[in-house]
Structure formats: C-alpha cells, structure tokens
UniProtKB/TrEMBL annotation:
GO terms for biological process: endoplasmic reticulum unfolded protein response. It comes from Chloroceryle aenea (American pygmy kingfisher). This is dolichyl-phosphate-mannose--protein mannosyltransferase. The lineage of its organism: Eukaryota, Metazoa, Chordata, Craniata, Vertebrata. TPR repeats lie at residues 499-532, 533-566, 601-634, 703-736. The chain crosses the membrane at residues 106-125, 188-208, 220-237, 243-266, 286-305, 372-391, 403-424, 430-449. It is an enzyme of class 2 (transferase).
Length: 757
C-alpha cells in the first residue's frame, strides 16, 4: 500500500533526494582513507570484527550465563514454549515479586534452540552464534553509516547509493573493533543486546526503504513504515532498548527526509508564526508517519506493560546505590557522573569490568568532590555539540551532529535512571547501541580535522593506530571472558573497592577446592560491604566445613538478621546448629528457611538428617519424601530413605523405595549400591549381584562397593569371588571398616575347607 500525499508549497521529496548529493558537502572529499567497493568494504569489516572476538569461541559459561542459561528451565525441552512469554530473562515468572521484569522471550528462544541443537549445555555453539551476530551487525553498519553520514539517495532503478564510502567504512570499523562491545560478544547473555541491535538496524534500514523511488513516483510506502514498527517490536522482545529505534526513525525522518531546521522551528513556535507549514512540520506525510510510529510505539509499550504487570522490578541498594539516596541533588549528581563514565568508556575503553556495583564507584555527596570535573566536562562537550547541532548555518553539519547525538543519547535513555530505577551502576553492554552515535561523531570530527590538516596521511595513520590498539584490546579482553577465573581477577585492578569482585574471585576459588584462598576474598568482600549477606553465607559454609562452627554461626546469624528472608542462610545456620548439637534451634532454622522458600528440597533433606539423628524416624522419612517430591532426582534423600528403612528392618519398604528411586534416576550407582544391599539381606542374591556389578562398572574405585559385593558372595557361598572382591576392596582402601575382619574370616574358612579336602 502506497501513500501519495503531496504538499503544494513544498518541493517533492523525490526531487529533494536527487539534489542531496549535489548541494551538500561530501565528507569523503576531506579525508585520506581507504576507498573500497561496497562488497569488499563489508568483507573487511566482517573479517576484522571476527578476528577481534574469535578467541572467545571456546570460552566457558561465565558470570550471568549460569543463571540465564544453565539454571534457566525455559531452555529445556520439557518446559512448554508458551512459558517463555510469561517468564523473564532469567526464567522467573513476571508476576513474581523477585522478577527483574526483563522481558526478552526471543533471546531466550535462541538460547533454547542452541541448547536443543547442541544436545546440552555446550558453550561453543552459544559463543559462535554471538560472534556471527556481531559480525553481521558490523556489516550492516556499513549501510547504516553510509545513510547517516552521506544522506539517503536512490538511483533511477530504486537502488540506494552510498555517498560516503570512505567515512562509512571508517565508522563501521570503529564500531566493529570497539573493546566496550566485548561483554556483549564474549559473554553469552550479551546476545540480548546483539539481537536487539540486529533488529534495531533492520528497522532503521526498513524505514529508509519506505522512501525508495518507485515507478509511480509516490513519496513513501506505508508498508515499509509498518515493517519498521514490527522490527522495532521484535528488537524490544530481544531487549528493552529496542523500542528506542522508533524515536530515532522519527528524528531521521524529520532531519533527513524533511530537512527540518529544529532551531528555526522552535523560534517559529515561540513567536506563533503561521508559516509553520513551510518549515516542514505540518507536511501531511511527516505527520502521518510520526503518527504511525507513535501509535505503534504506544501499543508495544502498553502490551509490554500488561505482560510485565504494574509492579516495578525490585532492586537492592547495592545494585544502584545512587537511586536509593533521599537527596534529589545527590541522585542527580551521581547519575550525571555515571553518564560521564559511560562516555569515558566510549572514548578510552581500557579499564573494563564485568561489574561496576557494590562500592566500585563511591557516591559523590559534596560539590567539593573532584569528580565533579568529569560531569562538568561531559556537559560542556554535550552543550557545545547541541549548540552546533541547532545553530550552525551548515545544514549538513546540523544533520550529522543531531543524528550522532540522537544515536548516542536516545538508545541510552532506558539505562539512564530518568524514567525508572535500573539494577546497575554502569553496564558495558548497554553502550552497544549508543556507540553508533559515538562512531558518527568520531568520524565527523576526523573529517573536520582532515579538512584543516595539511598532512592528511599522518592523521589517517593515527586513526589506523587507534583501530589497531582497539583490535588488540578486544582480543585481550575477550580472552579474559573465556573463564571466570580470568574475568574475575581482571576486575581486581579496575574495581578494587567492589565487594562483588572479591566475592566472585572467592567463589571461583572455593569451587576449585582452594578454601584457604577463598576465605581471604570472602573476608575482604564482607569488609568492603558489611551487609553483603551472600558473602557471609558462603564464608560461613566454608568455616562450617572446616569445623570452625562458632564463627560460622556468627556470620550466618548476622546474615539472617540483615536479610530475614534469606532462606539459604537459614538452612546453613540450621546445619551449623545441628553440628553444635543444638537440635531445637536447628529445627527452627530449617522451618524458617522453608517458610521463606516453600519449594526447598535441600532444606527438607537436612531436616530429615536432623530427625534421623534424634531417632524421629517417621519425621525423617516424611522430610526426605518431601525432598524427593520437590526434586525427584534428589539422590541423597532417596539413599537416606533406603538406608534408614534397611537399618530399621523394613526391608520390603526399603526395596520398594529403592526400585522407585532407580526408575527416576536409573544411572545413579549409589542407589544401585543401596538397593543391592537390601536385596542381599532379603536373599535375592542374583538380583543383588547384578546391581552390585552395575554399580562397580559405573564407579570401579569405590572400595565399599567391592567390599559389600564380597559379603554377598560370602553369604551366597561363592567364596572365590568373595575373596577376589575383598582383596580389591582392601587394595583400594586398606582401612575399610569391617572388610579386613570379613576377609580374615573368609581366609580361615578357606583354610579349614582345604584341610578337610
């Protein structure tokens, strides 16, 4: 469907397109840079962007990948696809009070496809897709920058012309190799930003196609405007920033298509000038397109609001401390300081960190703080650019600066804290789209310098040097994202005051079994943030395992005092109290944990252990049964039920529970072992033998498996096999309880048989 409205007093848009290249200066004339055909330019950009991040292809799942991918049930085949539309990015229900309200179902869908094709959680496939997405986006940038820097013009055959091949190539290269993009490319959860950027750019290019010349000579195509709105909606379903493309399309329409002079328009509005129509605002085509964009954007936001619910996401003070300050002045000062740091990351992306919260950036609370200089510098530059964008007599300069500022600022607005509180201080991933504006401004500045410079080649070499430095930094940074150990340690020098950095280094060390080093980092995390309950919980756990129970209890008690609904800390406190033989307090702690987390199988398991220690066998069995109902694959709970029933002489019931467990977890060798013991006592020797042998095949170095199989053969009368497995058991564990005594009994029996023979 084609819209064919014309303005009698305004020149035809088609004619305006053809005049654009003739009347406006061309940036390419002023710079010394490579001139390549479009195909080769895109190939170069693709190869260089691939080279920057290729070494991250075989990286691990790191940082947020665990929660968004490994622990996200929405990726598994058993979860209905429909659930993706009712869950947030992390797999929680959007209606939940704990949901972050990050609604990105299309991104989660791509994770699910990755998981299904790979047949499990293998990170290579996830990383490769991210790298391909960034390369694709970088290639699209060549077309986008050619429009933003050179204008929009079509040939007689309706093919878009690239009026700025040199500058568009330079800007695309700047974008492709910017180190701040490493988090989006090398971190798998950054796919949300990549997919959002892909459809963001497709929406923009689709909007440009609406003005392609056609045989009828009509002005624009409603079809492509609507396609642009739909692509904007898809971008938002990948990440929330995607909706901002509709605003940018409107800015582009006004500045490039209608050549609107914003300053002139403001002046006429202030003076109530009746010639507003000549200014281009009231052209019916523009108003109609803006109406489509606005109504489309409003509809998308309304639907998003209805799905999300009316409640805002719940963030804590450590996530974004400035937003919790009572003073409006303090909030405003710190927000602006954060903006200046984001700008600095674009200008000098050398100090990069996976997390900037928890004291990494101390709050500014006084105007005497020297950091005020940073935000003053930011606004000095922004005001200067805005003045040039509004007041310059050069229409080409006005257009490029306004578009550069628009692409720099508008995509950043959802992360600015202006409309709602966000859950971070600085996040490098949210600068992925705003970096488009930075690349426009950088390239335009380079063209202005080239125009004034006598030795243009020296300037070109300097820019080439910047590109090479960025490529090196990208390769170095993406290698740091390959493992959690490298990633977390790289942050220690950037954010030494960040408690979360020390916490993550400690957690990584603890996972590798280095408890002594982990304790050091956990203690530092608690020192930097005395209310860091997760660090207290993990430190308490390690101290509990090292039998330092008094300090463990103090830490865990403090954690639940600070955060009374911290279920994991309540459970761990119960374990410590149980070890201290304060059983009533332990039981109370377990039930408090279950109160705050209804579905808590591990807590029911530990509660069952407490009841077993108190000889409350029925209560223990009920607790373990609850654990297996909530988590059918809870092997420890099944095992304890079998062992307790076995020890209390309930062999038939123990056998039934064991068979039920093995149906649910058929490859668990510990369950095979426990059930084999029960069957042996029930004189079902053949079936018991089969299970013992199967368990040994799965875990051949378990001394107890060989020892108990030997006991079975001993009872069964198969003495040679009994002797063989006793010897294997003793070889694996010479101190195995009871095995040596049984072996000596068997040897004496064999000696007696030999004498009789």
């Amino acid at each position: 469907q084609i819209h064919s409205q014309h303005n009698a007093e305004a020149p035809n848009l088609e004619q305006a397109f053809h005049r654009m290249a003739q009347t406006e200066p061309n940036l390419d004339h002023d710079i010394s840079w490579f001139l390549l055909p479009s195909y080769w330019a895109k190939t170069v950009v693709a190869l260089i962007s691939f080279f920057c991040f290729a070494n991250s292809y075989d990286g691990d799942f790191v940082f947020d990948d665990s929660e968004a991918i490994i622990n996200n049930k929405d990726l598994r085949a058993e979860t209905p696809l429909g659930d993706l539309w009712h869950h947030d990015f992390w797999g929680s229900k959007l209606s939940s009070n704990t949901s972050h309200k990050s609604y990105r179902p299309l991104t989660v869908l791509t994770f699910r496809i990755n998981y299904l094709f790979a047949g499990g959680f293998y990170p290579i496939g996830f990383h490769v897709i991210n790298i391909i997405l960034h390369c694709t986006i970088s290639v699209l940038m060549v077309d986008v920058f050619s429009i933003l820097l050179g204008g929009l013009q079509f040939s007689n055959k309706g093919r878009r012309l690239n009026l700025a091949p040199k500058t568009s190539l330079l800007a695309a290269l700047l974008f492709a190799v910017h180190p701040v993009h490493t988090e989006c490319v090398a971190g798998i959860v950054g796919r949300a930003d990549l997919l959002c950027a892909l459809f963001f750019l497709l929406s923009f290019l689709g909007y440009c196609k609406a003005f392609r010349e056609n045989k009828e000579g009509h002005n624009f195509s409603i079809f492509w405007v609507l396609v642009s709105v739909i692509l904007g909606a898809i971008a938002m379903l990948c990440k929330e920033q995607g909706i901002t493309i509709l605003g940018l399309n409107a800015v582009f329409d006004a500045l490039v298509i209608n050549k609107l002079n914003v300053l002139e328009l403001i002046q006429k509005l202030l003076h109530k000038d009746k010639s507003l129509e000549n200014a281009g605002l009231l052209r019916k085509g523009l108003l109609f397109r803006l109406t489509l964009l606005m109504s489309g954007g409003a509809s998308i936001l309304y639907i998003r609001w209805r799905i999300m619910g009316t409640g805002p996401p719940a963030f804590t003070e450590v996530d974004n401390p400035a937003s919790f300050e009572d003073s409006l002045f303090v909030r405003a000062i710190n927000y602006n300081y954060y903006y200046s740091l984001n700008a600095w990351l674009l200008l000098c992306p050398w100090w990069l960190c996976f997390d900037w919260s928890m004291g990494c950036i101390p709050l500014i609370k006084s105007v005497t703080d020297w950091r005020i200089i940073a935000l003053a510098s930011l606004w000095f530059c922004l005001i200067g650019l805005i003045c040039q964008a509004l007041c310059s007599e050069d229409s080409h300069k006005r257009r490029i600066l306004t578009l550069g500022l628009g692409f720099l600022i508008i995509p950043f607005l959802p992360a600015s804290n202006l409309f709602f509180r966000v859950g971070f201080v600085i996040a490098e991933r949210v600068i992925y789209l705003p970096s488009i504006g930075y690349c426009i401004l950088f390239t335009y500045g380079f063209s202005l310098l080239s125009k004034q410079a006598k030795k243009k080649k020296i300037l070109a070499v300097a820019v080439l040097g910047i590109l090479l430095v960025n490529v090196t930094r990208c390769a170095l940074r993406s290698s740091q994202w390959r493992s959690e150990e490298q990633l977390f340690r790289s942050a220690l020098s950037v954010c030494p005051l960040n408690a979360k950095v020390h916490y993550n280094v400690g957690k990584n060390l603890a996972d590798k079994g280095n408890q002594s080093a982990a304790i050091k980092y956990y203690r530092e995390a608690v020192r930097l943030n005395p209310k860091y309950v997760h660090a207290m919980n993990n430190l308490g756990n390690i101290l509990k395992e090292r039998n330092e129970l008094q300090e463990a209890e103090e830490l865990l008690s403090l954690a639940v005092q600070i955060q009374p609904d911290f279920a994991a800390a309540w459970m761990n406190l119960g374990i410590v109290q149980n070890s201290l033989r304060r059983f009533e307090e332990a039981e109370q702690s377990y039930w408090t944990a279950i109160k705050h987390r209804k579905k808590y199988p591990d807590c029911y398991y530990n509660l069952g252990r407490l009841y077993a220690d108190l000889n409350r066998h029925i209560d223990a069995l009920n607790a373990w049964r609850n654990a297996t109902v909530l988590k059918p694959e809870h092997s420890l709970a099944w095992n304890n039920m079998i062992i307790l029933l076995d020890n209390t002489g309930n062999l038939a019931q123990a056998e039934a529970v064991g068979r039920e467990a093995l149906e649910l977890i058929p490859n668990d060798h510990s369950l095979m072992f426990s059930l084999a013991n029960v069957l042996g006592k029930s004189q079902k020797y053949k079936e018991s033998e089969a299970l013992f042998l199967k368990a040994i095949k799965a875990n051949p170095n378990a001394a107890s498996y060989h020892g108990n199989l030997a006991v079975l053969y001993h009872r069964w009368g198969n003495l040679d096999l009994a002797k063989k497995h006793y010897e294997v058991s003793l070889k694996l564990d010479p101190l195995a309880p009871g095995t040596k005594e049984n072996y000596n009994l068997l040897r004496r029996k064999l000696e007696q048989l030999q004498k009789k023979g």
